[in-house]
Amino acid sequence: MKVAPKSENGSRGYLDGQMLIAMPSMSDERFSRSLIYVCAHSNEGAMGIVVNQPASNVTFPELLVQLDVIPAADRIRRVLTYELIVANGAVRNLIRENQIHHLENTIQTGRKEGMTLMDNCLYDLYCKCLITYDTAVSRARHPDRILRK
Q1: How many CB atoms lie within 10 A of CB 51?
Q2: Could you tell me if 22 and 89 lie in one domain?
Q3: Within a 10 A sphere around the Cβ of 122, how many other Cβ atoms?
């Protein structure tokens, strides 16, 4: 597999870990008025989850099987990791004003509302000995922040 070169901000030009918002003019009814979390994106393709509409053809347990869920420290079971965004006024304004790059800071400051970043979830799981340190660092968006904690 050929890997795309990294840009100045460290990304490879792919959208994994990002949210996509359908344009109002989207005519494909499968994606009309959709908010999609991009789970994986590479030169081989993309996979995402529509997060604001119910899925009629897959159950949550089936979805977990299809996704790359992180292995537990005991390597026998798997542990679900997540990033949680609450659609409060601040989040809605950032989306409306196309300031998606500020979402991470908003999530970080929204902990009292239940928001959490993926990296915080990984760190918490590591502290509870549910995943290994190597797994936490390898899956983190900003591994250096986990290393500092």
Answers
A1: 12
A2: no
A3: 28
Q: What is the pTM (predicted TM-score) of this model?
A: 0.53
Q: How many CA atoms lie within 13 A of 120 on its CB side?
A: 14
Residues 79 and 61 in one domain: no
Number of domains in the chain: 2
How does pLDDT run across 83-130, given as a tens digit for each residue? 888 888 888 888 888 888 888 999 988 888 888 888 998 998 898 888
b/e string for 3-31 if b means 16 or more Cβ within 10 A?
eeeeeeeeeeeebbeeebebeeeeeeeeb
Single-letter amino acid code for the residue at 111? R
Query: Residues with Cβ < 8 Å from 56, sequence gap 6 or more?
Result: none
